[in-house]
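Researcher: Going back to the complex we discussed earlier. I've cleaned up the inputs and rechecked each line, so this should be the final set. Can you rerun the prediction on the complete assembly and write out the structure?
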Amino acid sequence: MRDVAIIGVGTTAFGEHWDKSFRAIGIEAGMKAMADAGISGSDIDGMYIGNMSAGHFINQKNIASLIADYSGMSTNHIPATRIEAGGASGAVAFRQAFMAVASGLSDIVLVGGAEKMTDLDDVKINSVLDTTADAEWEAGMGMTFAGLHAMIAQRMIHDGTATREEIASFAVNSHYHGALNPDAQFRKAITLDTVLKSGLVASPLRVFDCAPISDGAASVVLCPLEDARKYTDSFVKVSAAEQASDTLALFQREDITSFGATVAAAQKAYRKAGITAKDIDVAEVHDVFTVSGIMALQDLGFFRKGEAGKAVLDGQCQVGGSAVAVNTSGGLKARGHPIGATGVAQIAEIAQQLRGRADKRQVENARYGLAQSTGGTGSVAAVTVMEAI
Amino acid sequence: MASVAKEWREIPGRYNLIGTKCGNCGKIFFPSRDFCPVCRRKGIGKIEKYKVARTGEVYTFTVIYDAPDANVRQKPYAAAMVRTDDGILISGQLVDVDLDKIEIGMRVRAVLRKLDSDGASGVIHYGFKFVPEL
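Model: Rerun complete. Updated structure for the full complex:
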């Protein structure tokens, strides 16, 4: 196996892009990543696209071919593959690209993630999101995606492992960073009160506990580590890209206040990278709901069970805080959550941090960074560890 | 719109909480599984039908305000994960209950109700929901 480097990243702004189509945002992100990497289209010999549900959102399937075509790659007939893994689609697409380069089967691979959600109305969008849970025995019985996460939060509060305020503070942390990110959907800091007084979605979760509906795309370029300097002086090493699975339905687990797939993927990733959770300086975690963010910080080993909420409420996870800096991009909550793009955008943010290019939200001397992405209610998790070179 | 067959084949589970039990390890599955994920090959041929207890207690719950099309007329409505008296967790709606008085640990039992329907002329879906045990 070869070591793999990220040599370029590119993202669109996330938000409601009424004027832009799926193909337009997909190409914009890819072009930026290629320009950043200093490569041309003819250098690329493989492409993986993370996308959850273009079939529902824009009535288009076969989107890997669409992106290959509109980016000019189909003239070279390179293989282009779409990956779906619910909310983790982008991160799993990244891992496929990582494996292609590590194995030696491909040399320069472009990873894209894209979702165009706002062409559907809100109620229909929520029904699409519900399909990543168990369609027959959860969604079909009246559970919603937010409702399932709300039941996790309710149980955490009951067990005494997090308070309502601690859970809400995750959104405050994400918005604090979103205000520093020009590409974020919401560039405004909020207070705990903003979260706790917003409208109920599924009790105890409120509007500000939930990631928004977004359009957007993100892209990164991978090549063998030994070749990276041919293209750029600024690159990062991918130390590990791991993935794990769990039961589809939340109710089929023994413990609903921890995602076993995140724990499993993180442990493998730390082992591969030869580090522990303590070595991570900056992390992007999947805060599709505030409660998911709190759980992720515990499942990744940054905090013991019951401790993450206290640390976030205390501001320890902000840039310059005493603990690991979390969701410097603004996270899913403030940066936005165009589903298929999210996992790739998280990795792009970490790469920028490790290259020292994160501007106002730069974590000083960041050496190791981590991105964690989940699909469904933790039925799939991907954990990627990167190292500054 | 779902086909009639898709609805019909799930009736035992949806109406009567029929799951399965692995004859090798004794683990109960709901919804039913024909393959035991614990015993795998050793469980083949040993999977039996199992009727899940219709009573249990609320393990966790939520009141849903933002509902999909199918349930929009019911909102807000309660949903719960229930630990049945034979020890397994099941998700279902919680009805005939004061939304402010739901508590973890509260006793409930499963009843048959209309879930939703595929539009005015489509299939009507029935299945279990939970009500407070009197």
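Model: Worth noting: Chain B touches chain A through 32 residues (CB under 8 Å).
Researcher: Good, that matches what I expected from the previous run.
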